[in-house]
Design a protein that fits this description.
The protein contains eight helices and six strands. It has about 200 residues and is of the alpha/beta class. Helix 2 runs antiparallel to helix 8 and helix 4 runs parallel beside helix 6.
């Protein structure tokens, strides 16, 4: 089995996230891609992040019907700071994986920040890094020394961020084509991102 992990805050999950997930499945030949919203990201203030239950529900709605995308609440269930290394260790045990068949899906900006993550060398030992280009991020810049190679996921460069979407919603601007319709409806129903 070839398994991918795509983690993040997903506050909210938007079309660039979904295109990356779809391209990862296709280009890496994944049997399954687990999309896992984090509970409390170590690099963001939790007071600025939506309730994990809302973020999880938006992810479920966004990927509904995609047979190779699976949503996991494992990090949310841990109810503490989310560290990728622990999630990869759990997946390795649960699915009896080796590095050859476990992939960590990253945006280009994350690749260069990974040395700041908990146990980055262990992350690299557990999973192959599969990276999508991000606008304004050079993929040939200085990599952390322990990263000998990584896989590239080709996808359109899309300068879309959850932060910008939250801001647009708070200002009453349209985000209709940036989100799946079910996600947008959920945001409206629960009055999310309104200041």
């Amino acid at each position: 089995m070839k398994l991918g992990l795509y983690g993040g805050t997903f506050d909210p999950i938007h079309i660039a996230h979904l295109i990356l997930a779809d391209k990862a499945v296709e280009s890496l030949g994944l049997d399954k891609l687990i999309i896992m919203p984090c509970a409390n990201p170590p690099h963001k203030s939790s007071k600025n992040i939506s309730n994990p239950k809302h973020r999880l529900e938006m992810v479920k709605r966004a990927v509904a019907g995609h047979e190779k995308l699976q949503v996991s609440d494992w990090e949310i269930q841990q109810d503490n700071t989310s560290f990728t290394v622990y999630t990869l260790e759990m997946l390795t045990k649960q699915y009896q994986l080796t590095r050859e068949n476990l992939y960590l899906i990253l945006g280009g900006d994350n690749l260069f920040d990974i040395s700041l993550w908990k146990s980055p060398e262990k992350i690299y030992q557990l999973a192959q890094l599969a990276v999508a280009a991000r606008p304004g991020v050079k993929q040939d810049a200085n990599l952390p020394e322990f990263i000998k190679s990584f896989l590239k996921i080709e996808m359109p460069l899309m300068d879309i961020s959850s932060k910008e979407i939250r801001k647009m919603i708070s200002l009453g601007k349209s985000v209709r084509y940036l989100l799946q319709p079910d996600v947008l409806q959920y945001i409206k129903t629960h009055n999310l991102y309104k200041d």
